[in-house]
Structure formats: C-alpha cells, structure tokens
Specification:
Number of strands of chain B: 29
Number of helices of chain A: 9
Radius of gyration of chain A: 25 Å
Radius of gyration of chain B: 65 Å
CATH architecture of the largest domain in chain A: Alpha Horseshoe
Shape of chain B: rod-shaped
CATH topology of the largest domain in chain A: Serine Threonine Protein Phosphatase 5, Tetratricopeptide repeat
Strand order of the largest sheet of chain B: 24-25-23-21-27-28
Number of domains of chain B: 4
CATH topology of the largest domain in chain B: Immunoglobulin-like
Oligomer: heterodimer
Strand order of the largest sheet of chain A: 6-5-4-1-7
Number of domains of chain A: 3
Largest sheet of chain A: 5 strands, antiparallel
CATH class of the largest domain in chain A: Mainly Alpha
Distance between the termini of chain A: 47 Å
Structural class of chain A: alpha+beta
Helix content of chain B: 25-40%
Shape of chain A: globular
Strand content of chain A: 5-15%
C-alpha cells in the first residue's frame, strides 16, 4: 500500500511540474502575442502576472521593457532592460535596448567615473559572484587546514605542508574578507532607476528641506538601503554626478 | 378748397429741382478751408491766416475779403497767393492758398469770423476760427534758459505697465522757431534692457506742430515710434536715445512753417540724446492655477485644432495652437498641455507673422506640436483654459480651448520590428521558449551548509592544536608525562597483579599492587619515582585532603604489601579483595590529584 502511494505521488508530481512550466510559457506567448498586436497595456498586465507568480526570465523582463518603451514610460522600460541584462540569454539585446532608451531621454545626468574600489567590487559581484568567492575561500581554508595538520602530525612533508598550509589559510582569509566586503556592498547599495518625469532630490528626508538637485526620468542612481531603512517613504540616493540626497521612494524603482 | 393747378406746378418744380441737385453737387467738388498757423499767440507775434481752395480743376477764384477782425492787426490787406497741383493715383488736385499776415494785438480769446470768397462767381464763406492771444510777461522768464534750442525726448504712453504689456515709446524732437530740420538719423545703440523692442512703421512723414514750453514757442515732431514689451518686472531703465539731426538756422522767421526738410546752406549735424527714463514694471498677477499661462498680454484670441482625427500608429498628428490679435504676440510662449501617455513628441514648430503698422503690434503666432501615437486607441487632449492678461482692465481673461481627440488604429505591420517607424534601433520582442527561473537563489552565506563547512575546519584546527600541544608536553615535560600516564601505568600494574593472582604468585601480586599505588601517587605528585618511603606518600595524600577512610585503607594496603614477604599470603579471595581495594583506592586518589 505504501509503495503504491509513493508511486502515485511520484507520478502526480511528474505530471504536475511540466504542466506548470507549460502554463507560464503559454502565458508568456499569449502576452507576447498581445505585444505584437500593439496591445501594450494588456501585454504588460499579462507579463506582470507571470512575474507575480514567481517566474523570472530574461525574456520576460525584456518584453516588459519593450511594452513600457511603447507606452513612453522610459524609466520603467530602462528598469526592466537592466533586469534583463542580468540574464546571459538576453544580455546583448538588453544592452542595445538600454542604449536605445538612453538616447530617447531628454535629459541626461553628468556622470562621474566610478571609484576604483566600486569598480572592483562591481566586477567581483557581477563577474565572479559572492558564492564563488565564499566557495573558493572554503576550499583554501580546507587546504590550509590539511597543510597545518600534516605539518603538526606528520614529519615527512613538514616544510612543504607548512608553507602550503599558511599560504592557503592567508589566501582563504583574503577571499573571505573580499567576499564579505562584496556582500556588504551588495546588501547596502543597489541600483535604481528614476521612473517619474522629474523628482526633486532633497538634503534631508523632508519636502521642506533644501533642494539639492532634480532627478529626471531614466537617471540611474545608487540606492543606499542601510541609510534608507529608517525613513519610511524616502530613499537615500547618490546621483551619477556624485550628488547625494533624499528622494521620495515612488520616484525610484530599485533593482532587486 | 385746394387749388389743384398750383399743386401740380409745385410738384413739377420739386421734381426739376431734385433732378438738378446732383448736378449741382457734382459741380461743387472743391473744398474751402481757413486755417491759422498758431492758435495760441503772444501779443505782438506774427501769424498767418490761410484760405485754401482746392479742387479737381482750376476755378475762377477771387481774392478773399477779410472781415473786421478783433484783437489782431492785418499787416497787409492783400494776401500772398500760392498755387500747387498734385496728381495722386491719376487724380489731379489744384490748390490755391491765400495767406494774410496778422499780428496779435489784444490779449484774450478772439474769433476770426468767416472769410468770404468768390468761387466761379458764387460767394462762399469759410468756417470761423478761435484764437487765444496771451501776454508774454505772464510766463516764466527763465524757462527759455532751461530748455535747449533743440532737444529730443522719449514719450511713453504708459509709464507703469505690467510685464508683457505693450507700451509705445515715441521719439519726439523739439526745436525752436528759426531752426529747420533737414534730416534725422537714429544712431545705433539704444539700450532697452528688459524690453522686447519692435519699431513701428511710420507711414506718414513727420509733421511739425507748434507748442509753447516754459513760455517759449517750440516746434515738435514725432520722428519714430517703438513698441516696447517689458519682459520682467521691477525697475527698468530705457537708456538715452541717440540721434543725429541735420539742422539749419534761419536768420529770419518770415516763413516759420516752411518745409520740414527744407534745404539750404549753413547746414550742420548735431548729435542729440534723450534723457534716460526709469519705469516701474509691475509683475503679472497670479492666474488661476488650473489655467495655462503663456505670458500673453493684450487682446488675443487663441484656437487649438488637430489636423487629423484618425491615424494609424506611427503616423503624425499635428496639434496647432494659434494665438492672434493685438498684444505681445512675439513674446507668447508655447502652451504646455496635459498630453496623454503613449505619444512620441517631436520638436514643436513655431511660426509668427507680426504687423507693426499703427500704434500697436498685432499678428498671429502658431505652435504646431507633432504627436505620434505608438499604441492604438483613442487619445484625448482635455479642455484647457489659457490665461490672457487684459492690461486695459487689469484682469485675466480666460480662453477656453475645447477638448480635442483623435483615434489611432493599429498599423498594418503586425509585428514590432527593429526598423519600424519611430522604433528604429529598438530590438523586437523575444518570442519562443524562454528560460525560466522560479526563485531567486539564496546566497551561499545564508545557508547552514556554509556555516557548517566554515565551522568544521576551525574546530579541527583547534582540536589539532590542542592535541599537538599535548603531544609536545608529553614529549618534553616529564612530570606532565608521568602525571598524564599515571592512571594508565597504575592500571597496567593492576593488570599484572591480576595475572600474578591468576598464576598464584602472591608476592608478585602485592609487589605490583604496591607499585601501582606508590607509582600513581608519586607520578601525580611529581615526586621521584623511587626512594620515597610509604609514609611520605601517605603524608602527601593526607595533604591533598583525602578522606580518612581512604588514608586508612591506603596505609593498610601499603603495610600489607610491605610485610607480605614475611607473612603468609592470604587466601585467593583475600588477594582478589586487595586487588579490588587497590582499584578503588586508585579511583579515590584520582579524584584528589
């Protein structure tokens, strides 16, 4: 009886899983059909439903970007193209779409070059990833541990094991520190896109405080989550020109 | 009783008169006019009374006969006569002017009665003219010294306008009798900061008029006119107006109203500058917040229209706003409308047509916005109020522009392509099978596996280090080594004692038990391995606060071990009991050290 139940459960699961995948793909195709028919709002609504059910795809974000481009919501379009550029399958298309959208913005921010450690951190985060860094750090840690134990308890390879162990532990430590730094940077800061036509950047999270600058639709900003977490309705941002200030949170959509 | 024959005669006479009347009117196509060169005259000042007969043909005109004049004296009863012929648009006009020279004599207001003149045998009379003769001595004596012989002034029709309101600045030249103006030329460099300036077209040539300033007779002429529109509020300054004027000083004043541009010798050029003018420009009042402000001031009409009501996506619809009328047309801004989403907006086109004739600027200005719908649907541009300030009544007039809308149908090309219309350069949507990710991956550091994997080597390292330290100590610290191995050594000796018990070697058994106890105590206490009397060991145990029972058993056992060589061994059971007692003692002693 128990065996029969297990077989039935496995059989049901086998049938159910592909049907879920098929459903989201089918919904995606229907939404794309709407997009091609120029029913942009309907297409966006259908894409959004897929995303709300927890299904993510580079193609989904990319097509959402196209829909918003057609509706002249270029800030949102840029946001979705940026999301899409994180997926290897759609990265190239997304980048050319971002260029296209950027060309259509009336205003562009002056851009300061990224600081070296920010570039380094971004490179590690985007190209290697913190999980890979942690994994490498663990591997070196175990290697170092083995070297040290051999050095302590086996006299045969003392010299080699000593240097190998110390070197591996130091390397492991450096990798852990780097991974923690990148992780901290990723957790504290994020990228956001201004989605309102224009919004004022204030000196403090209060509309009566002095105005620092104006952020226009499509500006890419760096969001400081840690600084923002205690101020409901406000986000602390840094503009591409280096100016920092507070902006009302509905004006910016942050990439998660 | 009515006499019908007389009535008929009267009727025929009336009809005849009615038929002849137009002919008579046609025959009188001339004008007769009497004018004086001055209406306000000083006592003793000479002026002229002109009788002008003009018409389309030469006529038989007799000399006018002057009536009795009061307050003036006639210099010559025979007038001077001048005739001129002008041909305008093919029509010839002949004009004959008789001019009497008069001298003012008595102060007061006098009337020159109608002058009679015979034209084509018929007596005609002019209109009467009123003149005022004033006493020179009543006027300021030093006034003439304050004003120069010739000067320039800018005269404004409003010195307290609002922003955007048109004001007319007239360039007026004043010059004394005896000065003739031969030419004038504005010099570049009139600074009108804060104003939009348009020169008004002056159709007629300047005509001098006579005025009395500070008791001195001047002639004045408006040379040029400008329309000025203040572009900001506050105190604005019109700089000095520079002009170069050609003048000729006349030695006599026989003909005070000679040609304005009279030629002659002794001509010279003078550079004149008007006084700068400061004016206070008021800001425009706040308009209704729902209305669109376009900086419009004046009497302006505004219309808005779409050139098409139906298009397909990607095609252009033109939204044209036309502002026309009198006012600050050149300064009107493009109205900003609330346009619906989904429209591509291109740079608006702007055109204007300005007329500068007369005393006001009028014309029209058009703003054409190019709208390109990207999505099918109905696009509606809501009704909008445009605020136009009426400077005359000092209030806003709101022009309501009705809502306009158009429909955008889907274009015939179904698919979005990379090259279609306004989307040139935009990649098309991604179709087909997508790669799906159902959940965000959890960062490694948030998993328990990561922390286990991180903790294991650390624990292993600590354990290894401790083990290594212990091994090193066992190796190099004899006391520690003896202490560490004391229990094991004692157990080994007890085991040997057990073997001796099994092989019935009682002496060997008690020897091993003795060694086990003394060895354990000395190893734990760091005492030498041999040569220590049992009493010292017992003392050591007592010092460690051992229980008296333990000390008593230890002493008994050690004494038994020491004396067994000389005494008979006990039974096997006694021996086993001693082995057990030794084991218990070792356990008790282990707790002490």
């Amino acid at each position: 009886m128990k065996t029969l139940s297990t077989v039935l459960l496995f059989f049901a699961a086998t049938l159910y899983t592909p049907s879920l995948v098929f459903a989201q793909q089918s919904n995606f195709e229907q939404a794309t059909e709407q997009l091609e028919q120029q029913n942009y709002r309907e297409a966006i609504s259908q894409y959004q439903q897929i995303a709300d059910r927890g299904h993510h795809s580079g193609a989904l974000w990319f097509n959402l970007g196209i829909g918003y481009t057609q509706l002249d919501s270029l800030g949102l379009a840029k946001y979705y193209f940026l999301k899409s550029s994180d997926y290897p399958q759609t990265k190239a298309d997304a980048q050319s779409a971002i260029e296209y959208v950027n060309d259509r913005f009336n205003r562009r921010s002056a851009t300061l070059p990224t600081l070296p450690w920010e570039r380094f951190s971004n490179y590690l985060s985007n190209q290697i990833g913190t999980s890979s860094l942690y994994s490498m750090a663990l591997i070196f840690l175990y290697l170092g541990l083995a070297g040290i134990l051999i050095f302590w308890f086996y006299g045969k390879f003392r010299t080699y094991s000593y240097y190998t162990g110390i070197g591996a532990v130091v390397m492991s430590f450096l990798l852990f520190v780097t991974a923690f730094y990148v992780q901290y940077f990723d957790n504290r800061y994020g990228t956001g896109v201004v989605i309102e036509r224009q919004s004022i950047v204030y000196q403090s999270p209060d509309t009566s405080s002095s105005e620092i600058s104006t952020a226009y639709e499509g500006y890419t900003v760096r969001v400081d989550y840690q600084e923002s977490e205690n101020h409901q309705g406000w986000i602390y941002i840094r503009l591409e020109n280096g100016m920092k200030g507070w902006i009302e949170n509905q004006a910016v959509k942050a990439l998660e | 009783m009515i006499k019908t024959g007389k009535l008929l005669i009267l009727s025929l006479l009336g009809l005849f008169t009615a038929l002849l009347l137009p002919l008579d009117l046609f025959a009188q196509d001339f004008t007769l006019e009497a004018t004086v060169t001055e209406n306000r005259i000083f006592v003793g000042e000479q002026f002229n009374l002109n009788i002008e007969v003009s018409g389309s043909s030469m006529r038989d005109v007799s000399l006018p006969t002057l009536p009795q004049l009061s307050g003036v004296r006639v210099l010559s009863s025979t007038p001077s006569r001048s005739t001129s012929i002008s041909i305008i648009n093919g029509r010839t006009t002949t004009s004959t002017t008789y001019s009497f020279s008069l001298i003012a004599r008595d102060t007061g207001v006098h009337t020159i009665p109608p002058v009679s003149i015979q034209i084509d045998g018929e007596t005609r009379t002019t209109n009467s003219i009123q003149i005022e003769i004033i006493e020179k001595g009543n006027l300021s004596t030093d006034g003439s010294q304050q004003l120069p012989d010739i000067f320039l002034e800018i005269e404004l029709d409003d010195e307290n306008p609002v922003t955007g309101q048109q004001i007319v600045a007239s360039v007026v030249l004043y010059f004394k009798q005896g000065i003739e103006i031969t030419s004038f030329q504005p010099t570049a460099g009139w600074r009108t900061d804060g104003f939009w300036k348009e020169e008004l077209e002056n159709i007629r040539q300047p005509e001098p008029e006579s005025v009395i300033l500070n008791g001195v007779r001047y002639r004045t002429a408006t040379l040029l006119r400008y329309a000025l529109f203040p572009s900001r509020s506050g105190t604005l300054t019109l700089a000095e107006y520079p002009m170069s004027v050609g003048v000729r000083t006349r030695p006599t004043r026989n003909d005070p109203f000679g040609s304005f541009f009279g030629g002659g010798v002794n001509q010279r050029r003078v550079s004149l500058e008007s006084e700068p003018i400061e004016m206070e420009v008021k800001p425009l009042p706040e308009a209704d917040e729902n209305a669109v402000t376009i900086n419009a001031v004046g009497n302006l009409n505004i219309e808005r229209s779409l050139n098409r009501s139906e298009v397909v996506t990607g095609e252009t619809v033109e939204l044209t706003t036309t502002i026309q009328g009198t006012g600050n047309v050149p300064l009107v801004r493009r109205p900003i409308y609330d346009l619906p989403d989904g429209l591509d907006l291109y740079t608006p086109e702007e055109s204007s047509n300005i007329e500068r004739r007369g005393l006001s600027i009028r014309g029209d200005k058009s703003f054409t916005e190019l709208l390109v719908p990207r999505t099918p649907g109905r696009y509606s541009i809501p009704e909008q109020q445009i605020a136009v300030f009426d400077a005359r009544n000092n209030r806003y007039k709101y022009v309501a522009l009705p809502a306009v809308s158009f429909s955008a149908n889907p274009s015939s090309s179904r698919n979005l392509t990379a090259t279609s219309g306004s989307n040139q350069g935009m990649p098309g949507p991604i179709t087909g099978l997508a790669v799906w990710n159902n959940q965000e991956s959890t960062p490694l550091y948030k998993t328990s596996l990561f922390w286990i994997l991180l903790g294991v080597p650390i624990l292993a390292l600590v354990a290894g280090y401790l083990k290594k330290s212990q091994l090193d100590r066992l190796k190099f610290d004899q006391n520690y080594s003896r202490n560490y191995n004391a229990l094991e050594k004692a157990q080994t000796r007890i085991d040997q004692a057990k073997q001796a018990h099994e092989s019935q070697k009682p002496k060997e058994l008690y020897n091993q038990l003795h060694k086990a106890l003394t060895g354990f105590i000395s190893d734990k206490s760091g005492l030498p391995e041999a040569g220590i009397p049992d009493s010292d060991l017992i003392e050591k145990v007592i010092k460690e606060n051992a229980a008296s029972e333990t000390v008593k058993h230890l002493k008994q056992l050690l004494d038994k071990c020491a004396t067994i060589s000389y005494a008979p061994a006990g039974s096997m059971a006694d021996q086993q009991a001693d082995i057990d007692k030794t084991e218990r003692l070792i356990k008790e002693l282990k707790k002490l050290f």
